[in-house]
Amino acid sequence: MTFNDFNFDQSIIDGLQSMGYKLPTPIQQQAMPVIQAGKDLIACAQTGTGKTAAFVLPILDKIIKTKKGGINTLIIAPTRELVLQIDQQIEGMAYFCGVSSIGIYGGNDGIAWGRQASALREGVDIVIATPGRLIALLQSGDVKFDTIEHLILDEADRMLDMGFADDIKTILNYVPTKRQTIMFSATMAPKIRILAGQLLQNHESINIAISKPAAGIVQQAYVVYDNQKEKLLKEILKNEDFSSVIIFSSTKEKVKELAQTFTNLKYSVKGFSSDLDQMEREAIMRDFKAKKVRILIGTDILSRGIDVIGISLVVNFDAPPDPEDYIHRIGRTARAERAGVAITFINEKDQPRFAQIEALMGIDVPKMPIPEEFGAGPEYNPDAAKKKFDKPRGFSGNKSKPGFKKKPFNGPKKV
C-alpha cells in the first residue's frame, strides 16, 4: 500500500514527498480509511508509530476538497511540546495545500495571546491546543467553534493522567454535537474506554499499540538501594560515548536536586520541569537538540511529545509507575532505526513493579553488577519484595539487607 491508494489531493502527495514519507505505517493504513469515511474512532497507538499523520492527512484532504470557511478541526493535546510538534508536522504536510493551522498554548506573553485570539476569531483551518489555554480563550467570549467538523484528542490517556478530564468536558460545551470525534491513546485503560463511550458515537476501534521496545535498545538494570543511585549515575556518566542523555526522575524536586548536583560537577546538564517559564523550556529543548546540552533531567512529561534523534542513553533514576510509561521513556533512544542504551535503577520497593514491566515485554532485563566499592545492593526478588511492602502499617519485618554477589564493574554495555 502507498499513499496514492488513499486518493489524497495531489498537493498532499507533494508535501509527503518533500518530507520524505514513503509508505504508510500500520496505524496509518488502518486509521485513515476510517477517518475518510467520517466515522468516529478510538485508536491505541504509541509515539513513533506515525499516529499524527494518521489523523492529519485525511483531515487535510477533507478540508481541501470541502473547504467551507471557519475553524474546521480542533486537536487537543496534553502538553505544549506536543502541540508544537503536531503543528510543525501539519505545516510540513500542508505546505502545498494552503491549509492554515495555529498552536494554542500557555506560558507566553501578551502578544502571543493576542495572536492566538485573533486566529481563532478569523477562522484558521486547524487549531491545535492545550486544554487550559484554549478554555481561557473560549471564556473571553468572542471565539466561536460552531463550524468545527472534527474533534481530535491526542494522547487522551496522558490528558486524563494530568487531570484534564473536567477541561475536556468544558471544551465539549463549545463544539457542535454533530461532528466526527477521533481519539488516540497509548493505552486502552478502562478510564479511556469510559471516555470513549461518552464522546464517540458508533465508533470503530483500532489497537496497534507496541508494548515492546525498539530492537535497537540495549536494556540494562541495576538493583540498588536509594543511597547508591546517585553514585552509580556518576559512574555511568563518566562514559563519554553517551553524548546525549535523558534522565527520568519521579518528582520535580529530585529533578532539581540532580540537575544542581551534576552542574556542580561541571557536566553540561539542564533540568526540565513545569516550574520553568515557557521561554526557558524552549531554550533548553533547542540546546538539547543541537547537542549544546549533553544531559536533560525531567519527569515523565519528557517521555511523550519529544522526538529527538541521536539520544544515546536513557536512565530511569526512579523506576516508572507502569509498563507503558517504561516503554515511552526508553523509546526516547534508538529512534529512526538507531541504537541506544536504556538503564533502570531498581530499589527494593520497585522490584514488583519492574517485574510487571518484564512480564509485559516478555523478557528478563539483564541485571548488571554494581561497583564493589559501592557496597552490596539488594537481591532481585520481586515476589519477596511485594510481600514485604504489602505488609500493613506497623509491621516490623526483617530489616536485614540481603547480600548481592560482588562482581567487577565493567560499566554499561556499549552499543
How would you characterize this protein structure?
With 415 residues, this protein is α/β, with parallel strands linked by helices. It folds into 2 domains: 3-207, P-loop containing nucleotide triphosphate hydrolases (Rossmann fold), CATH 3.40.50; 217-389, P-loop containing nucleotide triphosphate hydrolases (Rossmann fold), CATH 3.40.50. It has 15 helices and 13 strands. It has helices at residues 10-19, 26-36, 51-65, 80-93, 110-122, 131-138, 156-161, 165-172, 190-199, 226-237, 252-264, 278-289, 323-330, 351-361, 382-389; strands spanning 41-44, 73-76, 101-104, 126-129, 150-153, 180-185, 204-207, 217-223, 245-248, 269-272, 295-298, 313-316, 340-346. The strands form 2 sheets. It has a 7-stranded parallel beta sheet, with helices on both faces. Helix 3 (51-65) packs across helix 4.
The percentage helix is: 25-40%
Residue-averaged pLDDT: 84
CATH architecture field of the largest domain? 3-Layer(aba) Sandwich
**End-to-end Cα distance:** 34 Å
Main sheet: strands, sense, barrel? 7 strands, parallel
Please provide the ordered H/E string of secondary-structure elements: HHEHEHEHEHEHHEHEEHEHEHEEHEHH
Strand content: 5-15%
Shape: globular
Unreliable parts: 392-409
What is this entry, summarized?
With 415 residues, this protein is α/β, with parallel strands linked by helices.
